[in-house]
Amino acid sequence: MTVNDAAETATSIETPKKPKKKHSAAYYAAAFFAKIGCTVLFVWLLLTFVAGVFVCHDNSSFPMIKDGDLCITYRLGKLKQGDEVVYRHDGKVCFGRIVAFGGEAVGISDDYVSVDGYRVYEDTVYPTTAENAKITFPYTVPDNCVFVLNDFRSDITDSRTYGGIPLDDVKGKVVFVLRRRGI
Predict the structure, then answer these.
(1) 180 in a structural domain
(2) What is the pTM of this model?
């Protein structure tokens, strides 16, 4: 018998298999609830620190966002001029478009908006007036705040009424809109 024959004989002899341990119903229940708990924790962390889900209850951002639309926001991205955002004011969820950041001067005249003396470019021209505004123009946005205007500009419940919106109150940039009414 050669060394190779001995090796083949050794591998052909099967070692006895250990019988599988049977788990109880309590084990499977605990495993199931542990998986549910981990899933709930992951979704909570995702919706708290990365994304948000909001429903628009007015037409302040019409025509982009309509009453009843479901909006998903992204919290981690850097905000820029022209972004549609969700913010809270006095406990109410509001939608608006960023026009200016802290330290910039906003002016509204002749149905257009200017920032630091330059007219703001918008894909769609929204006639904007300072009529009935609670602030005076030119308005210098406070540091760590943004100046937000509604897309539906005749609704002045935005920075023309509130002034600068603190960045801590901005809940994220709108990245997805799901139409729930009028489909």
Answers:
(1) no
(2) 0.76
